[in-house]
Design goal:
Chain B: Pfam families: PIP5K. Chain B: GO terms for molecular function: 1-phosphatidylinositol-4-phosphate 5-kinase activity; 1-phosphatidylinositol-5-phosphate 4-kinase activity; ATP binding. Chain B: InterPro entries: PInositol-4-P-4/5-kinase_C_sf, PInositol-4-P-4/5-kinase_core, PInositol-4-P-5-kinase_N, PInositol-4/5-P-5/4-kinase. The structure holds two protein chains of two kinds. Chain A is an alpha+beta fold. Chain A contains nine helices and twelve strands. Chain A has a seven-stranded antiparallel beta sheet with strand order 1-2-6-7-5-4-3. A five-stranded mixed beta sheet of chain A has the order 9-8-10-12-11. In chain B, strand 11 and strand 12 form a beta hairpin. The longest helix of chain B is centred in the middle third of the chain and has 20 residues. The chains are: A alpha+beta, B alpha+beta. At the A-B interface, helix 1 and strand 1 of A face strand 1 of B.
Chain lengths: 405, 394
């Protein structure tokens, strides 16, 4: 059966049954987006990466680099009005530091630029705490989060130590990978953004999601939450299911080593209240969904004229974007992933099986989620935990060790 | 002397001839002796990049002639090595000048490269009122510092100028206006306009004249004559017995263009322009080339006397890759060049075009004391100008 690829002009003439992601590599970047702020983001990242390509990479970072910024203000008159606002400002914080961090996280600047500029970032449906706005790059490799100016200040406070930590652990960490920090001004309104690597895979759907803290107070998904398409379950939900995440001894050891280093680091910075974000991709289920999709013909909706199509149950598909060098041309078989891209993914170890609910033949995607507003002041409605950062980190670590096997 | 540091691409071409030393830079540092030049390089780089994201319209609209793009940069502890931390760059009518570049056969990438790969060089040429000149490192373009009044005048004439260029298919002796900018560094505003270089990027000019066809005070001062390449004027030309020896076909084509050009200028009530004449002596250049080879080891990497030299920049698409013999030129680059005819006493190449066209006619009673008094109007000026040039070409 040949699927009728009617929607958008497919670039790759090859491949038959599998659903193709339709993406046309744009030579001219128009920075077209549904909102001016997204256009400005695209323009800004494009500009700053270009600027950086003309600044030689220093041997090492200097203290000044952690206080630096680049600012640009654009004022056009009767020019270039089609996709961009006529007036806007773009500020990048500590450009050299983030360039260095991208390097340490093995992200090529060109790829980073492409991901954020070839096509508009998409709204993500997952919501962080306090309803912060999330976006993902069109290829789902990066997450763009709206933060407050206080968060920016806090980031500046921890940046040196964070960078040092990344140097010491050689980029091997479960902490968020901070890749860029910006301030956009459109229509006089300032928006602060932080770009991090996507925890979840850009290809593999997440079927179940947990936000774990190792705490006991109010750690259960509300009914409202459970009604969502992909609810964020919490500690008590997890425990009630009687689950373990089976990743095998080697993976567990390696994972816990990283985790230990990370939480100790967070404790020294007096940061707490973080979670372990766990996403589970069910290989069998995904395979099932893929077949259903094919049987139903091309009913997929393509967002944005087919640019950056929606990600649903489409593993084994040729990579997103033929032109994106991060994608190697080959197929991935079910459950396979490129560990240099999906850095958080761990395959399940299926030697032990518990109940029928256990996670077998899965990919686990886990990382530490720092909830912004790192100030440890109690917020109205926040879960009150009567521990200090040190205790928090210990309790957190204990809990995570126990859920892995 | 073979410069070891030069790009290996140039090395594959011709042996003894002195090579222009240029290493294709991947990273553009915008390094220059003057922050203003760094900002110019940065600005043109930015502007051409921006334009590459703007679709080329089918035709220009009236708004395009009033448009501008402005950018203000404010860096803090970042990128301080070659760039000032605070500067502004404004480009006037970007789409219009992009269209003009296209009509003049100039590719935007080449234009960008010429202005950004290496810093523009100071030129000792002086315009009226001592305006400052630079040429691009490859000598393809001239960058003139102008006044805000000039910028205003450009805006006044731009639509008609563009229309004229459309109608003559870019075939004109008028300045080829390619970009107009305002740079702000340290609070000071500098206006610049980029035009195609009238003289060759390769063949040096040994004698230069600024001709108007007027008779009053048209002689180079002693101070001027002391310069390395003085700008001689009408009386000098006549007294020197200088001749422009070109064959009839060239002469006809040249005067045809000139006639249309000065008619256009008269219509716009512009005057006080000049014909800039540059003369390249082929034998003399050959001689100098031989001398410089003998002096291998003294090489400064200057680009003078480089006849038959491989092109400046191996990767510049404008240049052909084969060496040119003495007195030869690529007419798509040296668009103003005309060879002397066979019967000429000396083998020469002439470069002739109109310059300084932005002076608007000011009636006598409005002029200030000390202004160069020419008691003619634009119409008369154009006739007198044309007649004079016709005479000197015979």
């Amino acid at each position: 059966m040949s699927s009728n690829c009617t929607s958008v002009a497919p670039v790759s003439a090859s491949k038959t049954k599998t659903k193709k992601k339709h993406f046309i590599g744009q030579k001219v970047k128009l920075f077209r987006a549904s909102e001016p702020i997204l256009s400005v983001l695209m323009w800004g990242v494009n500009h700053t990466i270009n600027e950086l390509s003309n600044v030689p990479v220093p041997v090492m970072l200097m203290p000044d680099d952690f206080k630096a910024y680049s600012k640009i203000k654009v004022d056009n008159h009767l020019f270039n009005k089609e996709n961009l606002p006529s007036r806007f400002k773009f500020k990048e914080y500590c450009p050299m530091v983030f360039r260095n961090l991208r390097e340490r996280f093995c992200i090529d600047d060109q790829d980073y630029q492409n991901s954020l500029t070839r096509s508009a970032p998409l709204n993500s449906d997952s919501q962080g705490r306090f309803g912060n706005r999330f976006l993902s790059s069109y290829d789902h490799r990066f997450v763009i989060k709206t933060v407050s100016s206080e968060d920016i200040a806090e980031m500046h406070n921890i940046l040196k130590k964070y960078h040092q930590f990344i140097v010491e652990c050689h980029g091997s960490t479960l902490l968020p990978q901070f890749l860029g920090m910006y301030r956009l001004t459109v229509d006089g309104v300032e928006t602060y953004l932080v770009v991090t690597r996507n925890v979840f895979s850009h290809r593999l759907t997440v079927h179940r999601k947990y936000d774990l803290k190792g705490s006991t107070v109010s750690r259960e998904a509300s009914d409202k939450e459970k009604a969502k398409e992909l609810p964020t379950f919490k500690d008590n939900d997890f425990l009630n299911e009687g689950q373990k995440l089976q990743i095998g001894d080697d993976n567990k050891k390696y994972f816990l080593e990283k985790l230990k280093r990370d939480v100790e680091f967070l404790a020294t910075l007096k940061i707490m209240d973080y979670s372990l974000l766990v996403g589970i991709h069910d290989v069998d289920r995904a395979e099932q969904e893929e077949m259903e999709v094919e049987a139903g013909g091309e009913e997929e909706e393509y967002e944005n004229d087919g640019m950056g199509g929606a990600l649903t149950g489409s593993f084994g598909t040729p990579p997103d974007s033929p032109g994106n060098p991060l994608n190697f041309g080959g197929f991935f078989s079910p459950g396979e992933f490129d560990s240099s891209v999906d850095v958080y993914a761990i395959k399940s170890n299926d030697s032990k099986r518990h109940s029928f609910l256990s996670f077998v033949n899965c990919m686990f995607l886990m990382c530490i989620c720092l909830h912004f507003t790192l100030l440890s002041l109690p917020q109205a409605g926040a879960e009150i935990s009567t521990v200090n950062p040190e205790q928090y980190s210990k309790r957190f670590f204990e809990f995570m060790s126990n859920i892995l096997s | 002397m073979q410069s070891v540091g030069a790009s290996s691409i140039a090395a594959s071409i011709a042996s003894k001839t002195k090579k222009k030393h240029f290493v294709a830079q991947k990273v553009k540092l915008f390094r220059a002796s003057d922050p203003l030049l760094s900002v110019l390089m940065w600005g043109v780089n930015h502007s051409i990049n921006e334009l590459s994201h703007v679709q080329i319209p089918i035709m220009l609209m009236p708004d395009d002639f009033k448009a501008y793009s402005k950018i203000k940069v404010d860096n803090h502890l970042f990128n301080k090595e070659n760039m000032p931390s605070h500067f502004k760059f404004k480009e006037y009518c970007p789409l219009v000048f992009r269209n003009l570049r296209e009509r003049f056969g100039i590719d935007d990438q080449d234009f960008q490269n010429s202005l950004t790969r290496a810093a523009p060089l100071n030129s000792d040429a002086q315009g009226r009122t001592g305006a400052r000149f630079h040429t691009t490192y490859d000598k393809h373009y001239v960058i003139k510092t102008i006044t805000s009044e000039d910028v205003a005048e450009m805006h006044n004439i731009l639509k008609k100028y563009h229309q004229f260029i459309v109608e003559c298919h870019g075939n004109t002796l008028l300045p080829q206006f390619l970009g107009m900018y305002r740079l702000t560094v340290d609070g000071d505003e500098t206006y610049m306009i980029v035009t195609r270089n009238i003289f060759s990027h390769r063949l040096p000019v040994y004698k230069k004249y600024d001709l108007k066809g007027s008779t009053v005070a048209r002689e180079a001062s002693d101070k001027e004559k002391a310069k390395e390449l003085p700008t001689y004027k009408d009386n000098d030309f006549i007294n020197d017995g200088q001749k422009i020896c070109i064959d009839d076909d060239n002469k006809k084509m040249f005067l045809e263009k000139l006639r249309k050009d000065v008619e256009f200028l008269a219509q716009l009530k512009l005057m006080d322009y000049s014909l800039l004449v540059g003369i390249h002596d082929v034998e003399r250049a050959e001689q100098e080339e031989v001398e410089s080879e003998d002096n291998e080891g003294d090489d400064e990497g200057e680009s003078d006397g480089g006849i038959g030299t491989p092109p400046d920049s191996p990767s510049n698409t404008l240049d052909s890759t084969k060496p040119l013999s003495p007195g030869e030129f690529d007419p798509t680059i040296d668009v103003y060049a005309i060879k002397s005819n066979d019967g000429a006493p000396r083998k020469e190449v002439y470069f002739m075009a109109v310059i300084d066209i932005l002076q608007h006619y000011v009636p006598v009673k409005c002029r200030h004391a000390g202004a160069e008094i020419s008691t003619v109007n634009p119409e008369q000026y154009s006739k007198r100008f044309y007649d004079f040039i016709t005479t000197i070409l015979s």
